[in-house]
Amino acid sequence: MNADATADAGDETPFRVMPAVTVDNEHFWRGGAEGELRILRCARCAYWIHPPAPICPECLGRDVSPEAVSGEATVLSYTVNHQLWYPNLDPPYAVAIVQLPEQADLRLTTNIVNCEPSEVDFDMTVKVTFLEYPDSRGNVWLPMFEPAGEKDEGPGS
Ligand SMILES: [Zn+2]
Asked: Model's pTM, two decimal places?
C-alpha cells in the first residue's frame, strides 16, 4: 500500500502541456485509465476519426463513438528536441508522428519515451503507454509511445 502518495508525488513526473479536455475528446485523454487508446470510429463506414470530430469526414455520418485500438504503431517521422521550451520539460526528448496500423491515415503526434532519444528511428515499432497527470476535472492520461518488444540495451559501457 502506498502510505504517502499524496500531493508531492509529482517530483519525477516531467512537465507536459496539458490538453483541453472536452466532451468530444474525453475518451482519448481518459482512456488510459483502463489502459486503452481510444479513437472515434464511424458506425456507418468504420472510418477512424482523429482528431476527434462529431461528423465522419468520409461519409458525413454522425454516429461516431470511441473504440479501443491495438496501441501499436510505427514511427513515421520524428525530431529530437534539444531546446528548453518549458521549465521541467527537460531536453532532449523525441517528438514523433506515429502511424497506427488500423488505418492508413491514422496518425498521432506524441513523445517516444522509455528509450534514449538517439535510439528513435524511422519505422521503429512502438506501443502506447500512458502518463497520468492530474487535471482540474479529473486525471488525464497522455498517450506516449515506447519501443515495442525486447529492449536493445546496446553494448555495455
Ligand atoms: Zn463514416
From this structure: 0.83
Cβ contact 128:144 at 8 Å: yes
Which amino acid makes up residue 8?
D
Q: How far is the CA of 91 from the centre of ligand 1 (A)?
A: 40
CB-proximal residues (5 Å) to ion ligand 1:
42, 44-45, 47, 56, 58-59, 61
Q: What angle do CA 110, 36, 98 make, to 5 degrees?
A: 25
Quick: pLDDT tens for 106-133: 999 999 999 999 999 999 999 999 999 9
Q: How far is it, in rounded angstroms, from Cα 113 to Cα 150? A: 15
Distance 63 CA to ligand 1 centre (A): 8
Range list of β-strands (E), 3-83: 38-42, 48-49, 64-68, 72-81
Cα–ligand 1 centroid distance for 43 (angstroms): 7
